[in-house]
Design brief:
The structure is a single chain. This protein is of the alpha/beta class. It has three domains: 11-243, P-loop containing nucleotide triphosphate hydrolases (Rossmann fold, 3-Layer(aba) Sandwich), CATH 3.40.50.300; 251-339 and 424-509, P-loop containing nucleotide triphosphate hydrolases (Rossmann fold, 3-Layer(aba) Sandwich), CATH 3.40.50; 351-423, no CATH class. It has helices at residues 51-58, 81-86, 104-109, 120-133, 149-162, 179-194, 206-212, 235-243, 302-310, 332-337, 358-363, 367-370, 378-391, 408-421, 438-453, 465-471, 494-501; strands at residues 11-22, 25-36, 40-45, 66-71, 74-76, 89-92, 167-171, 198-202, 215-220, 223-229, 261-271, 277-287, 290-295, 317-322, 325-326, 340-343, 371-372, 375-376, 426-430, 457-461, 474-479, 482-488. Strands 6-7-8-3-9-10 form a six-stranded mixed beta sheet, sandwiched between helices. Strands 16-19-20-13-21-22 form a six-stranded mixed beta sheet, with helices on both faces. β7 (167-171), α6 and β8 (198-202) form a beta-alpha-beta unit. α14 runs parallel beside α15 (438-453). It is globular and about 70 Å long.
């Protein structure tokens, strides 16, 4: 492979020699990127590789320190996202930029050129026509807060199409979608590209890249490593280019008999942050030496479930038991004492304190171990932390520097290291690899399987269905706070799981 695929005729975007510096780091170091009209172009790289920075330059959020940007063969110097939009650049961010109380049509109209004004009904008709033309299911009069996450993403795409964007950038677009929604999104992307527009697709999911992209550009540590035609490459090569070494995709999950039930949830109900029902009569059982996965689109009660089990949110009814012991009224500290380990979705905030270093964050749950009367044995704490950091291969410039300065993968490994150092018998883990690159994901998944093989009962909440199918023994599917069904992971039907995630009647096996 020569590191560069032949460029199709008809350039939509041309970035040459892009350099972007931030204090202490070069995010983009002389990066080139060419995207043609009519293609879906994937952008791959580990966390911190420079993908988001590069797209932020193209979409006008940042200005490069060096290099040139051309759109449709015309040199550009964007001073704001508004100028990029006017030049035909549309970006759908991972975290949507929608106004919740407004309707679909009103959100689509926001930011449109001031010379283009439509009355309410005319706007809705225009949006409906646009949605029909691209096969996008959307009700123009519906309020944003009434829509699912997948529906909100379609509104963001409609906004870009309404503005007649010639280049559409999608940042991790399938992270919160069901398999059916992801497949539908890919058809929309191909439709947009078939009209001579360009689609730039940022994703960590190599299967999706191989399925939908024409070409892929790989970044590593701020440098462009290669641009390849997907037809001339494969997952293994792309992963190696991203990480700089060979990556094992198949996890070694051996078969063995699970033990006795260790975590039992019975008739559990709870309310959400707004006082609305979040959990509805949930019943689950996790056995020793088993990983039970929880699948579902974000916002269907998964976070509330883990918080109730960990003692961070009260249940309105039901029972949580560990090892047959009812801990429903126990404090978080008492649950830890009962053998519960908890890795929350919010790594920095709930899991760790961003402004503290590795040592202080490790001590948060091990204070008694290092207490010497009224004082803390700081040397013992530093020694123990150093051993953990080495054992779990956590990369940190210093044990004393704020953990917020570490990469996402190393933050997650530190959090897992702290929880596993207590040797829990039950482990609740939420979104363990969300936003992590291939190398960090591989390491985290290996740690979870080690716990399962050591006899720990693991409850794994993830929005990545591939991850659940690879790691879990059984998978429970949640929709609107209820368990739709529990299926065996071996030979599971992805289509069936996707339908359950969307609210279709499930089964229990």
């Amino acid at each position: 492979m020569n590191g560069r695929a032949a460029e199709p005729a008809g350039g939509a975007v041309e970035l040459r020699g892009i350099v972007k510096r931030f204090p202490g780091i070069i995010a983009n170091d002389n990066v080139d990127l060419s995207v043609a009209r009519g293609e879906v172009h994937a952008l791959l790289g580990e966390n911190g590789a420079g993908k988001t920075t590069l797209m932020s330059i193209l979409s006008g959020a940042y200005r490069p320190d060096a290099g040139t940007v051309s759109v449709g063969g015309v040199a550009m110097s964007f001073r704001s996202p508004k100028q990029a939009i006017e030049a035909g650049i549309g970006m759908v961010h991972q975290h949507f930029r929608l106004v919740q109380p407004l309707s679909v049509a009103e959100n689509v109209l926001l930011g449109a050129p001031s010379s283009f004004r439509l009355a309410g009904k005319d706007t809705e008709d225009r949006v409906a026509e646009l949605a029909e033309a691209y096969g996008i299911r959307a009700n123009p009069s519906a309020k944003i807060w009434q829509l699912s996450v997948g529906e909100q993403q379609r509104v963001e795409i409609l906004k870009a199409l309404f503005r007649e964007a010639a280049v559409l950038i999608l940042d991790e677009p399938t992270a919160v979608l069901t398999p059916q929604e992801a497949t539908h999104l890919f058809s929309i992307m191909r439709k947009i590209a078939s009209e001579g527009r360009a689609v730039i697709f940022i994703s960590h999911k190599l299967d999706e890249v191989m399925a939908v992209a024409d070409r892929v550009t790989v970044l590593r540590a701020g440098h462009k490593v290669a641009t390849l035609a997907t037809g001339d490459s494969n997952k293994a090569e792309l992963a190696r280019l991203m990480v700089g070494r060979e990556v094992m995709f198949r996890v070694a999950r051996g078969d063995h008999e699970a033990g006795a039930p260790r975590l039992t949830v019975t008739s559990l109900s709870a309310t959400g942050d707004l006082g609305l029902p979040a959990l509805r009569d949930v019943a689950l059982e996790v056995r020793a030496g088993e990983i039970l996965g929880v699948a579902g689109v974000a916002g269907n009660g998964q976070r509330e479930l883990t918080e109730v089990i960990a003692g961070l949110r009260p249940a309105t009814s039901g029972v949580v038991a560990i090892g047959g012991r009812d801990i429903s009224g126990a404090t978080p500290a008492e649950r830890i004492g009962a053998g519960l380990g908890y890795v929350p979705e919010d790594r920095l905030g709930t899991g760790l304190i961003p402004s503290l270093g590795c040592i202080d964050n490790v001590m948060l749950k091990r204070t008694d171990e290092f207490a010497r009367g009224l004082f803390i044995d700081k040397q013992a704490a530093e020694t123990a932390t150093s051993e953990l950091v080495e054992r779990f291969d956590v990369k940190a410039s210093s044990l004393h520097d704020p953990v917020s300065l570490m990469s996402g993968g190393n933050i997650q490994k530190l959090l897992l290291a702290r929880e596993l150092s207590a040797e829990p018998q039950t482990l609740v883990v939420a979104q363990p690899t969300a936003g992590l690159d291939v190398g960090a994901t591989e390491a985290i998944r290996g740690l979870l399987l080690e716990q399962r093989d050591a006899g720990v009962a693991v409850l794994l909440v993830s929005e990545d269905l591939d991850e659940l199918l690879a790691l879990c023994d059984r998978i429970a599917v949640m929709y609107e706070g209820a368990v739709m069904g529990v299926v065996g992971a071996a030979g599971a039907d992805r289509e069936q799981i996707g339908l359950m995630m969307a609210g279709s009647a499930g089964i229990r096996t």
